[in-house]
Write a structure and sequence with these properties.
Blueprint: H1 5-20, E1 27-31, H2 39-44, E2 48-52, H3 56-69, E3 74-76, E4 90-96, H4 105-115, E5 116-127, H5 129-138, H6 142-150, H7 169-178, E6 182-189, H8 198-203, H9 207-218, E7 230-236
Parallel strand pairs: 1-2, 1-4, 2-3, 4-5
Antiparallel strand pairs: 5-7, 6-7
Bound molecules: S-adenosylmethionine.
S-adenosylmethionine is lined by residues 31-34, 37-38, 53-55, 58, 79-80, 96-98, 101-102.
């Protein structure tokens, strides 16, 4: 399967980290790594992966997944308040689907930034508030769409919204800069692919490949990037 926009950036980052380390394994720290959706493939690709995750259930699934994939992952029960790992030792820190669910996003990102080795990076993947509005409107949930638009944090407050907040481009950039990191890449993930029904792809030979190409081409082009389902930042620790 062709790598998507996020995977492409991570592949390049890990290749650069391997080179910096004279061919040694890149050290990846996946905070809020859940059941290992990102961690297990990265371990299979030859990274030394640590997952910090508070949920015992997620850690149990991670352990099963890692065993089935034949990889070893250092799993730590912890959270962004106390990562339980050495500072400044990760070549790449993942915060995928994390900053929407923590109590204090700036404090969480600052804690992740402290875990990065000089020259390393944090990969931040978050839900986009404008995409959430569009998707609800398209699904006919007009009242929810309007409430999301009017809520400062991009949360459906008072409902069972699992997220504490959603982000837009400007808010995400500000958060990253305030954590003392620089924004190296800011792209969209799920720009158009989340909007195309599966039946359209099934009915048109070659459509899936064309869509994947369109997705990559649109990922960095505003305003399409700005309404992608998720926003992705590669944030560099420069000092
Ligand atoms: C939406 S899931 C994302 C899982 C995975 N990163 C992925 O992209 O598939 C969010 C994860 O963050 C974890 N989490 C929640 N609060 C956290 C905190 N304060 N510190 C670290 N992880 C946390 C949850 O237990 C959950 O596994």
């Amino acid at each position: 399967m062709r790598p998507d926009a996020v995977q492409r950036v991570l592949d390049a980052e890990l290749a650069a980290a391997r080179e910096r380390r004279g061919g040694e394994q890149p050290r990846v720290l996946d905070v809020g790594g859940g059941s290992g959706v990102w961690a297990v493939p990265l371990a299979a690709a030859g990274c030394a992966v640590t997952v910090v995750e508070p949920s015992p259930n997620a850690l149990a699934t991670l352990s099963t997944r890692a065993r089935e994939a034949g990889v070893t992952i250092n799993a730590v029960q912890g959270d962004t308040d106390s990562l339980g790992v050495a500072a400044g030792e990760a070549d790449l820190v993942l915060a995928h689907g994390l900053l929407e669910v923590v109590d204090d996003a700036p404090a969480a990102l600052a804690s992740l930034a402290a875990a990065v080795a000089p020259g390393g990076a944090v990969s931040v993947l978050v839900a986009n508030r404008f995409a959430a509005i569009l998707h609800r409107a398209i699904a006919g949930r007009i009242v929810d769409a309007r409430r999301l638009l009017d809520d400062d944090a991009g949360q459906l407050a008072g409902t069972r919204d699992p997220l504490q907040r959603r982000f837009d481009v400007a808010g995400l950039e500000k958060l990253v800069l305030e954590a003392g990191l620089s924004v190296e890449i800011l792209q969209g993930h799920g720009v158009v692919s989340d909007l195309v029904p599966g039946v359209v792809l099934d009915a048109n030979p070659g459509a899936a490949d064309a869509l994947a190409e369109l997705e990559l081409a649109a990922a960095t082009r505003s305003p399409l990037r700005d309404v992608a389902a998720r926003l992705h930042v590669l944030a560099r620790r420069t000092a």
